[in-house]
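dumping this here before i forget
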Amino acid sequence: MAREFIIYCDESTKTGRYYSNFYGGALIRSHDLEPIVRELEAKKLALNLNAEVKFQKITQNYVTKYQELLDCFLGMVEQDRIKIRIMFSQNRHVPMNLGAYQREHGYFLLYYQFIKHAFGLRYANESGEPVGIRLLLDQLPDTKEKATRFKNYICSLSDNKQFRDARIFFSPERIGEIRSHEHVVLQCLDVVLGSMQFRLNDHHKDKPEGSKRRSKRTVAKEKVYDHIHDHLRRIVATGFNIGITTGKPEGLISLWKQPYRHWQFIPSDHELDNTRTKK
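structure:
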């Protein structure tokens, strides 16, 4: 392949209070990968963040360090060196008429939709040269058989007319599972993805049982989310709303061109249950 896009993929809360099925992706052009990793690793080292960075590990003592690391990471997003996509569903959109296969394989079916659509890959190839996609998936939480079937299904996108016409290709040897503690990009993605589910599910309001005040850890996580939100308001020039699909100011090509996007996935066949949303 003349060119390659690397996509780090992560997933978070499957069943949340108001929002569920969180998936995240970070896309990097192959020629940018080495300098991006080098810069992020250097920033972690300078901040003395020697262990794995994760949203769930945020404490009061680490707020400033996480914010500074995110300044570096989201600065790269603002420069379009990294593209970030976050997908989630809202619980009030209740899927209807699901078959047994859809219920059993729902996790992977949604993952497939995320990879196929979230980055607008069919609009990504501006040069006309073949572009390979390398998928680096955080370890899949299911059987090896299901994971293999999922990877083969992803590879079938190469036969999709839109992807074939765009000369975007997937292949089995370019799809792998990785451990997040070995990949700084996936760690930073985890913090962004975790902060979104934290805020959308109102965990910033959580209080320990019997307490009138929030825990110090909850307050610390909210500070990190607020810092991320400030960045995103600058990056998404058309206006950023955390809980809805990001607008497409240039039409469908915005799915590719915008450096950061949210996608609220709504099943085509669903009914509304407003008891499952925020008051």
